[in-house]
Amino acid sequence: MHDHNNILRILKTAQGQVESVIKMTEADRYCLDISTQISASIALLKKAQKELLSNHLNTCVLESIQTGNPKEKIEEINLLLKKLL
To answer: Distance between CA 39 and CA 80 in Å, rounded?
Structure first.
């Protein structure tokens, strides 16, 4: 069972930050202040991604190992790592 509540909370916080960045940009706020808020939004998205991947490893991948069929899930992780790195 996937528990995405924490991930959703992080994503909704990031959504609020992005909305704030848009308003700051529309209001022609100081560029470095906007940049700081963009960095904070990116950090939240990365945090959500880490949490999501951790959940995936602890549920889907673990289940595939336990059922004796991990090849597909390991292949998926390899592809993802190639994209991320």
So the answer is: 23
